[in-house]
Amino acid sequence: MKNLHNILVAAASAIAAVSALPAHAQSHGHGHGAPAPVMKPVAAQAGEMSEGEVRKVDKAQQKITLRHGPLKNLDMPPMTMAFQVSDPALLDKVKAGDKVRFVAASPGGKLTITSIEAAN
Asked: What pLDDT, on a 0 to 100 scale, did the predictor assign at position 17?
């Protein structure tokens, strides 16, 4: 009888532990009624969009110089500085003088623009 009690207590503990897990963690398969994990947009993952003005585009060095407002995600005050770009094609989207919205990150300690668009 004592063994049955121990088994029931262990089973109840296991059920309580599993029911406390998020629904997607309880699923053992893919596409079997389990909800898909929630994915945040890339901009949200990297940080908020910041605003600035393009001062210079240097395609040869794959850099862009921006006069920007505060970069909250990098805890940086407003200033003018050059950034690397994560993709050289980003430099084709803008030219000197354009007002822009962008996402800056610091992968490996290098300040990098990961997204940029003309501000309307």
From this structure: 46
CA 29 to the chain's CA centroid: 26
Q: How far is CA 100 from CA 54, 58, 96, 114, in A?
A: 7, 16, 10, 13
Nearest CA to 68 out of 42, 96, 94, 102 is that of 102
Q: pLDDT tens across 62-117, in order?
A: 999 999 999 999 999 999 999 999 999 999 999 999 999 999 999 999 999 999 99
User: All domains of the chain, ordered by start, with CATH?
Assistant: 1-38 (no CATH), 42-118 (2.40.50.320)
Rounded CA-CA distance 97/105 in Å is: 22
